[in-house]
Amino acid sequence: MGHVGLTPQAHQHDRFVRAQGRDESDWAPIEADARAVADAGAFAVVLEAIAEPLGRRITADVAIPTIGIGASVACDGQILVLEDMLGLSPRVPKFVKRFGDLGPSIERAVKGYAEAVRARSFSGSGERLPMRKKPG
């Protein structure tokens, strides 16, 4: 499987993700990369963070399936980082639609568990066990 557009290996994680190929004059190298991936025998290509019209064009141009991550609804398939989708990431790219905001719920659950462990009341039976005295 090939990968064109934004390549995470080259991305500086402290910066915001910028769509690749926003200007039509920048399309040619990205299109050439996608064609090269297909010509090299890849079974599919991920199109990451590229302008929607370019994603649509590459999908129409290459014979292999395209998998979009912030590329185009016209791609043959879609992927999204689970942590971004569920609201667990503090910063997400503009193209990400959050389908939940689980971060606060998970934080409450973990804090509740930690408090129950400290109080020794985490058993499902509701039984509260006394603290054992340490020898010595």
Structure description:
The structure is a single chain. This protein is α/β, with parallel strands linked by helices. Helix content is 32%, strand content 10%. The protein has four helices and four strands, in the order E-H-E-H-E-E-H-H. A four-stranded parallel sheet has the order 1-2-3-4, covered by helices on one side. It is elongated. The model has no long low-confidence stretch (mean pLDDT 84).
Features:
136 residues, four-stranded parallel sheet, 10% strand, single chain, 4 helices
Read across the widest sheet, the strand sequence of neighbours is 1-2-3-4
Unreliable spans: none
What structural class should be given to the helix and strand makeup?
alpha/beta
Number of helices: 4
Main sheet properties? 4 strands, parallel
> What is the average per-residue confidence, as pLDDT, rounded to a whole number?
84
Q: Could you tell me the number of beta strands? A: 4
Shape: elongated
Q: Estimate what percentage of residues fall within beta strands.
A: 5-15%
Q: In angstroms, what is the radius of gyration?
A: 23 Å
Could you tell me how far the N terminus lies from the C terminus, measured between alpha carbons in angstroms?
A: 62 Å
